[in-house]
Amino acid sequence: MAPENPWHGSGILRREFLQVGFSGVLGMGLPGLLAGQAAASNSKLDSRASSRPRAKSVILVFLTGGLSHIDSLDMKPDAPDGIRGEFQPIETAVPGIRICEHLPRLAEQAGKLAIVRTISHGQTNHLNGTHQVLTGHSQPGAFFDKIASRDDYPCYASAVDAIRPRSDGVPSGVMLPTYLMEGPLTWPGQHAGFLGPKHDPWQIKQDPNSRDFRVESLAMPSGFGVERLQRRRELFEEIAAQRDRLGATSSSSPAKDPFDAQRELAYSLILSGKVARAFELEREDPRMRDRYGRHMYGQSLLLARRLVQAGVPLVQVNMGRVQTWDTHSNNFKTLKERLLPPTDRGVATLLEDLATTGMLDETLVVVAGEFGRTPRIGQSTGNANGRDGRDHWAKVFSVALAGGGVRGGQVIGQSDKMGAYPASQAHSPADLAATIYQALGIDPATELHDRLGRPIKLCEGAPIARLFTA
């Protein structure tokens, strides 16, 4: 389907985490995510850390629909007409590495980038491919357009939330600024799957570039200030203390209030203000906002940087709505005029910004789509495809990484001369997942447990070692 305008925005999709709004703080209802964080400490998880973790956070820039690798990061200027496309490669800051002419600012940042040109899997359906890239696993029982299910594997944020439960009220994962859903089809790979909704990441569905951008769930109601909330908190604490004293003198101790831990997490979230301030983009220097670009892509990436500064370990930025990068027709015009320029500007500025603030070493940035596009222009792999379009292609495509201990200025792997198949060792989404977990200091062999208590390995892949070695 035709790509959508990257400047489009819509409202907030509230997750269980803040679904009940401020009432959760008062004990009238409790956010699912906060409840999950409090309960997660009782889960049976093995979180052995790798020997040299570097990343504290991951920013996953997801190009929903599938970036044409052959028109961006793995160009084939010597391929025959009908394959090489309309764009020309340009030299980057690293001799010998060339990328698309419409990515000039990323070309300047090539010394920070590692481009893996041999990612490969077998799913050419958007939903199945998205699950595979966002979880590192094939979707259980995959079939064409299989929607999200609680039998799915957890996304990265959800796995981290289960393995490393927090007690500071900061969510383990935030996805923004769009929720991947089209009509009745909800894209898998966006939630906790078999780990349950208590580990779902927080979904934001609002354009940060909008003048009225505001996360209402993080704001206190009019007339209800911090001091009043603090007094309410102290009252709850006194009631809890009295209950505990009564229990100490009673032969039958009263049951502990199951909401205590969740309530404390909710208080921490709102009173600390760390996450709430991250969403206040008006606090940012206007010149920095301009550098990212005053559009949905740029401001979403800026917000991602602010969220990792606030301590959120996993932030996924969806660059567009579902299938925005699905260039079945007008491939070159769409990439040139609508998709590559804002992405180039936003991602390059993100890397510069993280490096300047000293955060790049501790923040892994991953830029990926669910697959690539057909080498031959107009070729169909089962979908209606225009003469100037490229269809889905998962046999080989490219992913770019930076920061978090990644050694930049390198290309890992080669596709064949047509950009159709790996010409060197292929790497799977499971390998990408293992790389992400290892960068965070989480052993990919960690065991998770499904709803029946059965052990399931976090990841079956192997980290891409060359990303971190000299």
TrEMBL record:
Instruction: Provide the leader sequence positions.
Output: none
Domain of life, source organism: Bacteria
InterPro entries listed in its UniProt record? Alkaline_phosphatase_core_sf, DUF1501, TAT_signal
Q: What is this protein called?
A: Arylsulfatase A family protein
